[in-house]
């Protein structure tokens, strides 16, 4: 006989474990040195509880299948939560052709929207290119891509997550925002 209550417990315990595991891994990669270890303690406790429930009931393969299903759904939920939190920053490089007015106006538009932009020139297969380096909070990443494409649809865009940021426009802006938050 199938114990639906037990299957639900196995599923939700593993879903919680893997969701926490995914988030803890992402927090670790972003350098959250206090929150990640605390989350790992909760995570391992849930893991042992869920695994023991399955190992004690290996006579029913549905328990193992439910455990695996909870694992898969947990990975998906963890990724969705991390995307929603959008922790950290992204570094975007936009490479533009130089034969348009957009190569001069895009840096101005981006700066008007509060982005720090470093502009340089490079050589591509078809000639000279404008290279823009733009730092953005991850939560604004999609809006930044949209803004770039709105001004120059032919822009070649690459992004990555920086681990360490020091100095420059961005650091000053963050310090100013933190001071204003402390006064409020």
Automatic annotation (TrEMBL):
Segments passing through the bilayer: 6-27, 34-55, 61-81
Domain annotation DUF5698: ranges: 22-79
Pfam hit, one: DUF2179
UniProt-listed CDD domains: YitT_C_like_1 (cd16381)
Key word NAD present: no
Domain DUF2179: 115-167
Alphabetical list of NCBIfam families matching this protein: PRK04164.1-5
Protein name in UniProt: UPF0316 protein RV00_GL001243
Organism: Enterococcus devriesei
Organism placement in taxonomy: Bacteria, Bacillati, Bacillota, Bacilli, Lactobacillales
